Amino acid sequence: MKIVVITEKPFAENAVKGIREILEKAGHEVVMIEKYKKKEDVIERIKDADGVIVRSDKIDEEIIKAGEKVKIIVRAGAGYDNIDIEACNQGKIVVMNTPGQNRNGVAELCIGMMIFGFRKGFKEGKGRELKDKTLGICGCGYVGKRVKEIAEGIGMKIKVYDPFITTENQVKKIEELFEECQVISLHLPLTKETKGKIGYELIKKLPYGGMICNTARKEIIDEEEKKCGEYIRCANGTFNDKKLTVATWRSLNIKKMHSSK
């Protein structure tokens, strides 16, 4: 089989080496499509592929139809919202993901964003500790569980919202999480149900000085409802604005609703 690896942003050298060793040992041909500039480059080279490995690259209907021989697409990561699942179903293409492989890296980033936020960018004489603060984990899968472990290790209290699992310190409604926690960490997949799920009505329930940390998908937060303000801070590694980067801070307009506290 011919396996095409599509990565505009290349894998680490060790990852590429591992992919090649495993697939070539099994008798497959491996073709790397890295740092490509146009979708047409992908379309041209996928035409005779039997399988595809992809990161966050967009695999739309046009690309899928070009790969007439493709039988399987593997997403190197958990979220597969970059792949047109309906088009794959129509083409009888199997789609698989690899959840949990980057859980520690994402969890460490998440905790680092929290520390940076509470220490006000490490300005001298300012900031707060995370110890004894209550962390609300929204979505407790591989990454959420790892965040929970690290947060407990530095003395944070934990509450969890996840309708698909049963765990300790669990709340039944997402509103409870925002009302009872100083920090919210989002670990939701992007689906029709979760798109724009975190909006103004939820955000305003956070206590004074609260923070949202989003290392999931940018579309989960309804950015249209974010206005200029100074009460709630949002650390979002996935903002829609391409000029912003990981750990870029934006204020949310919670107006004066916490002014009496």
From TrEMBL:
InterPro entries: D-isomer_2_OHA_DH_cat_dom (IPR006139), NAD(P)-bd_dom_sf (IPR036291). Gene3D superfamilies: NAD(P)-binding Rossmann-like Domain. Coiled coil: none annotated. Residues 19-181 form the D-isomer specific 2-hydroxyacid dehydrogenase catalytic domain. GO terms for molecular function: NAD binding; phosphoglycerate dehydrogenase activity. This is D-phosphoglycerate dehydrogenase.
